[in-house]
User: Fold this.
Amino acid sequence: MTEQKTIDWYFDFISPFSYLQAELLHTLPPGVALRYRPVLLAGLLNHWDNKGPAEIPPKRTWTFEHCAWLAHRHGIPMTMPGHHPFNPLPLLRLFVAAGGGEQALRRIFHFVWREGHLPTDAEPFRQLMQELNVTPEMLDSPDVKQAIKRNGEDAIAAGVFGVPTAVVDNRCFWGLDATDMLQAWLRGDSFFESPLFHSARSLPPGIQRVKPS
Assistant:
């Protein structure tokens, strides 16, 4: 990597894949600047007329089994929360109100995906807020709400359709599985100038699935 890169990393605390990739961000090349951009996954899904993996029953089972395997494979501690999906907005607002840094990011992810808590668990959530020096009034701040809204708008404008997504050089790298691809891009891997990659980018659409009326 010949120059410092700035990555907008879009995530939602509802996403186990976001948690897992957050635990691997330290593997990115040195000198990378990360901007943590919390977004509401449901807003992205609504915009792109898409469904989350937890909304398709067999995919839901596979998703959580796969996440458990990936956590095991990477040596990342993981505990499933009491139920899923859940409303992540209190967690997103908490992150922004706490300053939006790496320490708050990791602590809130651990709250859900290591300790198995939900934002509706009143006493654990109160303790988490206290730990991060955030009051209920701060969660309801218009500035906090506007920051999350703006992140969602910026994500959609950048072509982000799911989380986690790293945006760098006007290019999206979606999902935990793309971590090594992102690392290669940051290293300047010559594959991204190859005929195969260019043909993949320009592959035209063919027959379209018609939605039942």
User: Anything to note?
Assistant: The chain is about 45% helix and 10% strand. The chain has a mean pLDDT of 95. The two ends are 51 Å apart (CA to CA). The longest helix spans residues 57-74.
